Structure formats: structure tokens, C-alpha cells
């Protein structure tokens, strides 16, 4: 994986605070100051379509499956960054999972195909990556298709030492549906809400974005995570 070096995500209001602290402290910034400036990535519902049958291919490139006849349909989209703790220190050897709708708005789930649509058999639908010693990660995927009632979004889960530390969703800036999306609007803290809306810029006939994930030290209570519907019969591949 290519080396990724990106700045922390610091909202504008906190950037001004940090700048004033830099000035007042003569440029000496401690880890506690960075911790104050960092925005904790907000939790979000897992949703009903976490895969109930995982693909054999589970790497961080969702655009091409092993043995696939063609690349997945849709606009190729890449994003990456660092996994950080609340002190701004990188977290290595943590597992980050990604699952999302394909270009037709369908999930890799037995009940995740929208009415009148077909799931793209060339799209992996789920991927994962382990952060390196710098806490870096990267995914190559597609721009998520629109699922009924939602804006475009990625589902993300972070595991550390076998425990799920965070379940969240990532959004694309500029999407018209963002203003009406109930899950995104439910994030009341403005800094946290902005921290999961990232700009994806054109690059190499696709889109590229940067996103640093900041997690706390307390694992999630699995009973508080939304559970999907009971698995149905596995669809034809």
C-alpha cells in the first residue's frame, strides 16, 4: 500500500482555537492540545445490510473480484487516511471493514436487492484492510449507488483486538440528498457531522478522497447495534 500522509481533520472553529494556542504557547503544542482539537468520528447505525454471506474475495479493492470477467460498474472512487485515537496517535494493526451499495443501489445481502434492480455480480460489495504501522488504510471502490430513502454513503466498521470499536457511515460532499438524509441529520454535533462528509475530487478518471477516522477507547456494546433481518435464502450468483 502506498504511503499516505494526511493532516488531522480539524473543523474551522477548532483550527482557529488551535492557531491561537500555537501563538500563545510560542509554537509548543502538546498531545493534549491536539486531542482537544480532534473530532471524534460519530457512531451510526450498522443498517440492515451488513453482508449475511461474505464474498470469497475480501481485500481492499472492491472494483475487481478474483476470477471476475470485468470491473464493477460505476465511477471508481478511492479514499484513505489514518486511524487515530483521541490523543491523535496512529493505531496500527486494526481492521477496517467497508460495505456499500453497488452502482444499482444493491447490497451483497440476501435481501439487499432493490425492487426492479439487479446486483452487479462484478462488484465485491465488501472489503477490509488492516492499518499499517502509521495507522494508514486505503480502499478502492466505486461511488455508492442510491438506495431508496438514503443519500450516497459508505458503511465502515473498525475492529481492534477482536472488538468492534466503531460503526459509522461516510458521506460524499455536495450530494443533494445529504440535506434530507435522516441518519446524517441525526448527528447533532456539527463538528462530528462535518467530519463524516468528505470532498471527493476528480483524479485518474475517478474520484479520490481523504478521511481520518478518530476512535475512542471504549468498545461498542453489540446489543446497541442495529441488527439486520434474519438471513434469507442465498440468491443465485
Broad shape: globular
Beta-strand content estimate? 15-25%
Q: What is the CA-atom radius of gyration, in angstroms?
A: 18 Å
* Separation of the first and last Cα atoms: 30 Å
Query: What's the total count of β strands?
Result: 10
The biggest beta sheet, please? Answer: 5 strands, mixed
Structural class computed from helices and strand pairing: alpha/beta
Number of helices: 4
* Low-confidence sequence ranges: 1-36, 226-237
Provide the helix percentage: 10-25%
Mean pLDDT: 83
Order of helices and strands: HHEEEEEEHHEEEE
Topology:
Blueprint: H1 12-24, H2 31-37, E1 76-85, E2 95-99, E3 126-130, E4 136-142, E5 153-160, E6 163-172, H3 182-185, H4 190-195, E7 197-198, E8 200-203, E9 206-210, E10 213-215
Parallel strand pairs: 1-9, 1-10, 6-7
Antiparallel strand pairs: 1-4, 2-3, 2-5, 5-6, 8-9
Features:
single chain, about 240 residues, alpha/beta, five-stranded mixed beta sheet, 4 helices, disordered N terminus, disordered C terminus
Q: Mind explaining what this structure looks like?
A:
There is one protein chain. By secondary structure, the chain is an alpha/beta fold. Helix content is 13%, strand content 25%. Strands 1, 4, 8, 9 and 10 form a five-stranded mixed sheet that branches. A hairpin with a 2-residue loop joins strand 5 (153-160) and strand 6.
In short:
Helix content is 13%, strand content 25%. With 237 residues, the protein is α/β, with parallel strands linked by helices. It has four helices and ten strands; from the N terminus they run H-H-E-E-E-E-E-E-H-H-E-E-E-E.
Amino acid at each position: 500500500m502506498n504511503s499516505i500522509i494526511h493532516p488531522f481533520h480539524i473543523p474551522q472553529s477548532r483550527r482557529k482555537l488551535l492557531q491561537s494556542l500555537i501563538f500563545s504557547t510560542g509554537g509548543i503544542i502538546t498531545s493534549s492540545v491536539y486531542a482537544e482539537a480532534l473530532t471524534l468520528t460519530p457512531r451510526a447505525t450498522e443498517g440492515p445490510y451488513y453482508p449475511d454471506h461474505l464474498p470469497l474475495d475480501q481485500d481492499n479493492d472492491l472494483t475487481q473480484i478474483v476470477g471476475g470477467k470485468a470491473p464493477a460498474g460505476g465511477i471508481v472512487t478511492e479514499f484513505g487516511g489514518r486511524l487515530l485515537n483521541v490523543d491523535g496517535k496512529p493505531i496500527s494493526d486494526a481492521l477496517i471493514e467497508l460495505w456499500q451499495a453497488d452502482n444499482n443501489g444493491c447490497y451483497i445481502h440476501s435481501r439487499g436487492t432493490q425492487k426492479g434492480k439487479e446486483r452487479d455480480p462484478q462488484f465485491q460489495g465488501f472489503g477490509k484492510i488492516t492499518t499499517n504501522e502509521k495507522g494508514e488504510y486505503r480502499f478502492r471502490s466505486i461511488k455508492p449507488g442510491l438506495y431508496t430513502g438514503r443519500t450516497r454513503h459508505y458503511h465502515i466498521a473498525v475492529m481492534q483486538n477482536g472488538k468492534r470499536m466503531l460503526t459509522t457511515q461516510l458521506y460524499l460532499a455536495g450530494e443533494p440528498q445529504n440535506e434530507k438524509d435522516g441518519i446524517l441529520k441525526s448527528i447533532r454535533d456539527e463538528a462530528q457531522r462535518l467530519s463524516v462528509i468528505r470532498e471527493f475530487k476528480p483524479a485518474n478518471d475517478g474520484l479520490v478522497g481523504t478521511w481520518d477516522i478518530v476512535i475512542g477507547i471504549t468498545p461498542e456494546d453489540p446489543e446497541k447495534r442495529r441488527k439486520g433481518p434474519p438471513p434469507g435464502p442465498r440468491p443465485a450468483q
